[in-house]
Write a structure and sequence with these properties.
alpha+beta; about 325 residues; about 40% helix; 2 domains
Amino acid sequence: MNNDQWQARRGLITGSRIAKLAGVSRFGGPFACFMEMTAEQMPEGETEAQRRGKLLEPVVIEWWHSNNRSWLPSLLTGKLLKHENGWAACTPDAVFLKEELTRVIEAKTASGPVVDQFGAEGTDEIPFEYICQTQWEMGVTGIERCDVPVLLSDRFAGFVFRNYVVRFDQDLWGRLLEIGERFMVDHVRPNRPPPPDNPDEQAELLARQFPKVQRPQPVEADAQLSLKGQELSKVRAELAALEERKKALSNEIKDWLGDRKAVVADGWKASWYDVKGRAKTDWETIARSLGASDEMIQQHTGVGSGTRAFKFTSIGDSQDE
């Protein structure tokens, strides 16, 4: 997804976002959804799961189509579609047609613990966040069946393709619409974020609310803030002492291990194993060796958006938080 596609989805509740609002997504809740819906720019970077999904999605769809050759791809594939209410939307991974029948396809890849949430092939036994996502896509498009082809990384069988079938549930669609409408009324339209669920989300909200320094002159702390600063200073000192103790204990265990790989004890185990050096490719040098000019390299070199750094200094030390 590029930034233009991201911008087209601003203010809209899509399938992945309704799962967050329903509280069943592994990737955040209502606060994360709000920040995503109202962000002015597409977030930089992507998770390994997002990268895997993007690269393998065409493969998974092709596997499904290889088993359903009589179905023809629709022009709706990959299009941003909106419900008549104006705020419910989806972008189907694929839509296929066969005579008077239509199927929406939601391709997935899965590895790790989530694999255990997939049941027998041909059923709708898939993680509930995907149930919400597929019901949302069917509700928006008016298509009453969604096939969910999945490439599973099974620890016993290796990579396995399976296909799951989800049929439209009017009652669930109605409940999801109620959740979405309430979120639009309470938070999106008045631009009022829901409460953050953890300190990381609180930090994200503060970074958006106060992106740049507007008043550069230092100010005197009031009594309440002074106490918070004193508490932070104490906590940092305690953490530093614990970190030093952790390093010392780790070194004692490594000294005992010597050239052994691992040790097991009552309630704990430890290993000191070989790690291969990390490969690093110098793409700029490769580009120059192939004739790229400084101007070309500069043209394709991006600079991330700036942020603010928080620096808290106790007497006698200096540390950026």
